[in-house]
Amino acid sequence: MIEMGYAVRRKSAVGLAVVLPLLLASLSGCSSAPKNDTFDLSAAAPVSTSHNASRRQLLVPDPTALKALDSEQILVRVSPSEIQYLSNSQWGDRLPRMVQSKLVEAFENSGRLGGVGKPGQGLAIDFQLVSDIRAFEIETAGGDRAVVEISAKLLNDRNGTIKSQKVFRAAVPSRGSQNAAYVAALDRAFAQVSAEIVEWTLGNL
Predict the structure, then answer these.
(1) Claim to verify: residue 42 and residue 29 sit in the same structural domain
(2) Is residue 38 within 8 Å of residue 74, measured between CB atoms?
(3) Residues 15, 42: one domain?
(4) Which of 132, 38, 135, 39 is nearest to 83 (CA)?
(5) Quick check: 126 and 59 in contact, CB under 8 A?
(6) Within this chain, do residues 76 and 28 fall inside the same structural domain, yes or no?
(7) Which end of the chain has fewer CB within 10 Å, C or N?
(8) What is the domain-level CATH number for residue 47?
C-alpha cells in the first residue's frame, strides 16, 4: 500500500511538472497577443439650418439596436444573411452609446435648441428623440461600402404622442480595403445621417 501511494504521488508530481510549463507558455502567448485598434466617430460639425427651437428642450435616450450592433464590434455584412466582425478593430464604446453621444453633440453644436441632454441630466423635457439603429455596417457584396440606417421618432413628452417619424439612410463607398478606410467610410455615412436627423428634428419642434 505504501509503494502504491508513492507511485501515485510520483505520477502526480510528473504530471504537474509537465502541466506547469504548458500553462506558462499559454499565459505568455496570451500576454503577447495583438490588441485591437480602437476607433471613435468624429466630432459632429455644426449643422447649417434656418430652423430654430430655442424654446424647446430635447432628450436623447440610448438608441435601441439588435444584439449584433449593440457592442463594441464593427459589423461587416458579407451577404444578406451572413455577418462577421472587422478583425483587430473595435469601437471605443458600445455603438448605441457612441451614436447617442454624437447626436447630443450635433444638437449642441447647432446652437438652435433651448437644451439637449441624456436621461438623468435633469432637463425639463418637451420632446424625446427615440431612435433605433437598423444598420451600421460595411457591406462587401458588390463593392465595399459603409451603410448607416437609423429610424427616428419625435415623441411629445407632455402627452406621449409621436409628432413625426422618419428613416434616415446613407451609403458611402470605402476608399480602400483596410480597416481604417472602412471605419472612415462609416464615419462619413454617420455624419450625413446625423446632420439630416438634426435638421429634421429642429424643423419639427
Answers:
(1) no
(2) no
(3) no
(4) 135
(5) no
(6) no
(7) N
(8) 3.40.50.10610
At 89, is the secondary structure helix, strand, or coil?
strand
Do 11 and 24 share a structural domain?
A: yes
pLDDT band at 174 (very low <50, low <70, confident <90, very high): very high
Q: Which residue, chain included where needed, has cell 439650418?
A: 49
pLDDT tops 90 at residue 52: no
* Domain limits for position 4: 1-33
Spatial CB neighbours of 61, under 8 Å, sequence gap ≥ 6: 100, 118, 119, 128, 129, 130
Give the contacts of 122 (CB within 8 A, at least 6 positions apart).
none
The verdict on pTM exceeding 0.90 is no
Shared domain for 123 and 58, answered yes or no, is yes
Per-residue pLDDT band at 34 (split at 50, 70, 90): low
pLDDT, the chain, mean: 84
Pair 54, 154 in one domain: yes
Tell me which of 13-22, 27-36, 135-144 is least confident: 13-22
Residue 165 pairs with which residues in a beta bridge? 153
Instruction: Determine the Cα–Cα distance for residues 149 and 132; give it in Å rounded to an integer.
Output: 9
Q: Is 109 within 8 Å of 45 (Cβ atoms)?
A: yes
Rounded mean pLDDT, 129-135: 98
pLDDT recorded at residue 15: 43
Domain count of the fold of the chain: 2
